[in-house]
Amino acid sequence: MIDTHLALEMAREKGLDLVEVAPEARPPVCKLLDFGKQKYLAKKKEHQAKRKQHQVVIKEVRVRPKIDTHDLETKMRKAREFLIHGDKLQVNMLFRGREHGFRDRGLQVMLKFRDDLADVAKVEREPRMEGNRLVMILQPKNAVPQPTPSKTQQQQPS
């Protein structure tokens, strides 16, 4: 146990700061260190943690009940890309006018969408009506997102 004035004098001699580490302890615990460097390292560590973090984004695909098979395949291909990248996917089907009478057809299209993407996605919310639209939410099966290759990596021959 060292007196506070003596500890401050030691810090000044070494060109360091006296930093209180555990103020609740009796007696309080202090350290001699370069506080500016400590703040810099903490900020750098926080920045690195943010860089590695993947923000979950909800992507949306809109389909219609009378969609053609080729158009549906195109939408599914794009949806697959979103899911492989690690984003959630919301599939919306809007019903207008007479299409309300064919909600069963819309549900069949939605279930086909779900079944064809079953290898990369799991259903977070089953298809259900919300006003004029049928909504389903899918999430990727693998929780770890695939990193997007940079342009330099794409141009190199393998």
Brief account:
The chain has 158 residues and is of the alpha+beta class. It has helices spanning 4-14, 35-52, 69-85, 103-116, 151-155, and strands at residues 17-22, 29-33, 58-63, 88-94, 121-130, 133-140.
Topology:
Blueprint: H1 4-14, E1 17-22, E2 29-33, H2 35-52, E3 58-63, H3 69-85, E4 88-94, H4 103-116, E5 121-130, E6 133-140, H5 151-155
Care to describe what's here?
This protein is an alpha+beta fold and 158 residues long. It has 2 domains: 4-52, Roll (Ubiquitin-like (UB roll)), CATH 3.10.20.80; 58-140, Translation initiation factor 3 (IF-3), C-terminal domain (Translation Initiation Factor IF3), CATH 3.30.110. It has helices spanning 4-14, 35-52, 69-85, 103-116, 151-155, and strands at residues 17-22, 29-33, 58-63, 88-94, 121-130, 133-140.
Key features?
four-stranded mixed beta sheet; Translation Initiation Factor IF3; Ubiquitin-like (UB roll); alpha+beta; two-stranded antiparallel sheet; 158 residues
